[in-house]
Amino acid sequence: MKSNYSLHGQLISILVHCFKRVEVSLTHYVVLASIAVLVGTAANAAEVSNDYYRVVPGDTLWDISERYYGTPDKWPHLQQLNAIAQPTQLLPNTLVDLGTSDPFPLTVLYRAGEAWLIEGDNQFTLQNGDTVNVGDVVQTGAGSITLQMRDGARAVLPSNSRVVLQREGERGITFRLEEGEVESYVPTQRSPGRAYTIETKTGFLGVRGTHFQARYEDNTLLTSVYDGQVTAQSRVGVEQAAVDNGDGARIGIGGDVQVVQLLPPPEEVRITSLLLDDVQIEVLYPSQNVTYRAQIAKDPHFLNILRDQRSLDGQLRFTGLQPGFYHLRLSAVDRLGIEGRSAFFVVHHNDRHVAVIRESSEGHQEGSQWLFEWSHQAQTSYRLQLAADSEFNRVLLDHVSQHNGPLRVSRLPANDIYWRVVSTDNLTGISEVIDTGTLNDSS
After folding, report:
1. Options 1.10.357, 3.10.350, 4.10.430, 3.10.290; CATH of 52-97
2. Residue 204, pLDDT score
3. Where do the domains of the chain lie?
4. How confident is residue 11, by pLDDT bands cut at 50, 70 and 90?
5. Are the CB atoms for 47 and 95 separated by under 8 Å?
6. pLDDT reported for residue 22
7. Residue 275 pLDDT > 80
8. Of 93, 108, 29, 14, which is closest to residue 59 (Cα–Cα)?
9. Alpha-carbon span 116 to 298, nearest angstrom
10. How large is the angle between the packed helices 75-82 and 61-69, nearest 10 degrees?
11. At 80, phi and psi to the nearest 5?
12. What is the pLDDT of residues 152-200, one digit of tens each?
């Protein structure tokens, strides 16, 4: 172990990464100390793609128009496309849509289980990296698929869903939802000229920059809005409603549009990793007239969904899962069929150990971050401790985890650092070390 250990001049910060939906913002950070921010050069910041330009200090729409169109006279087109109020006062680092991209073709980002491209009476299994175009029909069976557009918008089709892809205007897209569900993540910088619409026989959902879910069943269109705003409009009559963040809506076949507040995330949940490749989820105090929905995914953003299950009593079991690391989200569905906000959990199936991942920045030790993740049990609190010695007499950090998501620790000294995660049963007060290890091991 290295000697002459000193904390002077060192910065220790911890970032708590909470996976909320959305969310489309999926990351919230709590900063306990200083954080270094790296800013690239103006030339590098401007190079985004052929479709977008990132504003640097001093830019105007005249400059951008001349650079990309060869004349400054196209600035009104850029102003209208991006809904910019002050063409001479552009906020640095914002993205300006150049109006050149087409959402088609869409790319298959993830596929798990059964997902097909339907052509008449034929169906072809879709694979990661395949593309789908205007007029294509995509259908899932016992599986899910995530489609990505060129501007970063993503649509997730869970099991037993069917959509027809249609163009709307020159650069917009419509998902004609014939059955099942579409969960959408639409970037906030998406311009008004790029329409994004969910269409069913019952009604429409129109958005710009939001995270929402649309489900069509029994001639009823249901939506839950987790971020941003959705306009819900019936096909019958002219009734429409703005559905805000935290609200849901039901459009009936008769043309009525009903807006309600989303149910809160379930609380007091017990997750048990069983020996026979099963994961048991139990809502300890289930509510009446509520259906519970649980989804298992390989990623924290739930773009790669592996399993999807519903229960009336809050008891759910996923069978046949290989030991490993998973993400779980759990929500309550009200009596109208509108899905509420989700609770998120990290599941280490058949593994009580802590996963520790080093995330380096530009190859320098000072830019490294360490990611700690472990399974959280109900009625249990956890703390992450870092120390300069193996006996933990010189504790550098003693952080009580307030969330089920992973913890990121950054700007650590280059000396050997010892870590451990301690769990405490909130009912008995008994504590135990569930895992321990060393960072920057120089031995």
Report:
1. 3.10.350
2. 94
3. 1-42+352-443, 52-97, 106-261, 269-328
4. very low
5. no
6. 30
7. no
8. 93
9. 21
10. 110
11. -70, -40
12. 789 999 999 999 999 987 778 999 999 999 999 987 766 666 789 999 9
Closest among 84, 44, 83, 47 to 67, alpha carbons compared = 47
* Alpha-carbon 138 to chain mean position: 22
User: Tokens for 262?
Assistant: 């989303």
* Beta-bridge partner residues of 359: 369
pTM higher than the cut 0.90: no
Q: Is residue 407 within 8 Å of residue 16, measured between CB atoms?
A: yes
pLDDT confidence of residue 367: 53
Tokens (6 digits) for 4: 């002459």
Q: pLDDT (tens digit, 9 = 90+) per residue, 222-244?
A: 999 999 999 999 998 778 899 99
The answer to whether the peptide bond before residue 105 is cis (omega within 30 degrees of 0) is yes
Report the residue count for the chain: 443
Are the C-beta atoms of residues 108 and 130 closer than 8 Å to each other?
yes
Beta-carbon neighbour count of residue 348 at 10 Å? Answer: 19
SS3 188: coil
Most confident listed range (43-52, 235-244, 331-340): 331-340
Decide: helix, strand or coil at residue 208. coil
CATH 2.40.30.20 assigned to 106-261: no
| pLDDT winner (highest mean) among 36-50, 214-228, 375-389 | 214-228
Q: How far apart are CA 243 and CA 335, in angstroms?
A: 18
- Are 176 and 147 in contact by the 8 Å Cβ rule? The answer is no
DSSP state string for 398-414: EEEE-SSS-EEEES--S
Which pairing describes strands 172-186 and 196-199: parallel, antiparallel, or unpaired? parallel
CATH class of 1-42+352-443: mainly beta
- Asked if 360 contacts 367 with a C-beta cutoff of 8 angstroms, the reply is yes
